[in-house]
Write a structure and sequence with these properties.
Blueprint lengths: L64 H10 L6 H11 L4 E4 L6 H15 L5 E4 L3 H14 L7 E4 L5 H9 L4 E4 L1 H10 L9 E4 L2 H6 L3 H10 L5 E6 L4 H10 L4 E4 L9 E8 L2 H12 L7 E4 L3 H13 L4 E4 L5 H12 L5 E4 L1 H4 L9 E4 L6 H8 L9 E8 L1
Helix pairs in contact: 2-3, 3-4, 6-8
Bound molecules: adenosine monophosphate.
Length: about 400
């Protein structure tokens, strides 16, 4: 049963959102920035994506045959725009800055040139730094399938898991290490990860790493690598901070940009007014049973609120997954896997836990708890409207 705006809110493009812009006075979060809720209302305006004509097919790239075979068995034939431009530069040994959103195929864009070199040169070593554990694991999954049967050893060094297995992996002298800044730095400081021979590096989602306060850890890692090295930097946005970090290490890097405007341009944004707690949870219930709401991420402001809402929705018969910083790495991974595989279609998360979630088919982002800053809001709503699809972002505001 579709909900219509006579229920008090709407979330479809057909409605003129400015018709019910909420008043500004009531929505100050307890902590953080004051955000005018009128900024939560906006009609999607997807950019016109010009047809990109790739210069290559994967078979055109002169890469190791084992890598070529693994690319074929993944079913990749035509490179995505970022791959089309980055792989060529990467194979030529250039430092590359890729400005690309998640979902553009950026992982294979850096893995193909890196794995090619690792397969040809047993002494080469690569370090890949990602802002979140989830992203590091996603990169490792792609790395494994692309380097099958090629004698390339990998290690994943992320927080939230024990040191034992990581030490054992490091003793095998891995060719490629993927990790998050904090844990990588711990291993470097303990002497279990020696970076002096690492002659390739990737910083993935540089902007997000800086947002999360990893700048010093990242600088430390870069300063320990082989001086003569090839570097890849990926970022959804380029600003003075990102540029400042990169320019200090790779002044001659070539920039490739395939950004198709702001992701939030693909997202219809609207508000759901509520009067009290009961009315709020009922409005959420009504929303979640609507057939157009196929895959939803619900944001709550604290771990406790996530748990409370998880319990409440389970009690109402919804199958939900939840992620927050208080859950173990195993629990977070299981929740994310279930959500990705669509075994559960509702995920409740805090802002921090949701960073790095890359699920292509999220239809709705629901801000049940108010974001602390407008930047958090933008990060949240960017989870919907991926891969050229229109998404919906709905924010609960006290009426
Ligand atoms: P990424 O942006 O690297 O996370 O990739 C997004 C998704 O696109 C992943 O599921 C990849 O497996 C898939 N993918 C990447 N490159 C290609 C390609 N050239 N052809 C088809 N699928 C791709």
């Amino acid at each position: 049963m579709p909900i219509n705006s006579s229920r008090g809110y709407a979330y479809k493009s057909s409605r003129a959102p400015h018709a019910r812009k909420p008043r500004a006075r009531v929505n100050k979060p307890k902590h953080g920035q004051y955000i005018d809720p009128r900024r939560f209302v906006k009609v999607a305006n997807p950019p016109k994506i010009e047809d990109y004509v790739p210069k290559h097919k994967f078979v055109d790239f002169n890469v190791d045959q084992r890598l070529q075979a693994n690319i074929q068995s993944k079913g990749y034939e035509v490179p995505t725009p970022i791959q089309d431009q980055t792989i060529e530069l990467g194979l030529a040994g250039k430092d590359v800055i890729g400005i690309a959103n998640t979902g553009t195929g950026k992982t294979a864009a850096f893995l193909v040139p890196i794995l090619d070199r690792l397969m040809r040169d047993r002494n080469a070593r690569a370090l890949i730094v990602a802002p979140t554990r989830e992203l590091a694991q996603q990169i490792e999954t792609e790395r494994r399938t692309l380097s099958r049967n090629a004698g390339v050893y990998g290690a994943v060094l992320i927080g939230g898991t024990g040191y034992g297995g990581q030490m054992a992996d490091l003793r095998r002298n891995p060719n490629i290490v993927v990790g998050t800044p904090g844990r990588l730095k711990d291993h470097v400081e303990q002497g279990t990860l020696k970076l002096a021979n690492f002659n390739m590096v990737v910083l993935d989602e540089v902007d997000r790493m800086l947002d999360m306060g990893f700048v010093n850890d990242v600088r430390l890692l870069l300063s320990r690598l082989a001086e003569k090295r090839q570097s890849f930097y990926f970022s959804a946005t380029m600003d003075a901070r990102v540029n400042g970090l990169i320019a200090g290490f790779s002044p001659n890097a070539v920039t490739v940009s395939v950004r198709q405007g702001d992701t939030s341009e693909n997202v219809h944004q609207d508000v759901i007014p509520y009067n009290d707690k009961a009315n709020k949870i009922d409005a959420l219930h009504t929303l979640l049973i609507d057939s157009v709401v196929t895959k939803t991420i619900i944001f709550e402001s604290t771990q406790r609120n996530v748990e409370r809402l998880e319990k409440e929705l389970r009690g109402r018969g919804f199958d939900v997954a939840a992620m927050h910083g208080g859950k173990t790495q195993g629990q977070r991974k299981r929740a994310l896997d279930a959500f990705k595989a669509s075994n559960v279609s509702i995920m409740i998360a805090t802002d921090v836990a949701a960073r790095g979630i890359d699920v292509a088919d999220i239809s709705h982002v629901v801000n049940y708890g108010m974001p602390q800053t407008y930047e958090d809001y933008t990060h949240r709503i960017g989870r919907a409207g991926r891969a050229g699809k229109i998404g919906y972002a709905l924010t609960f505001v006290e009426a």
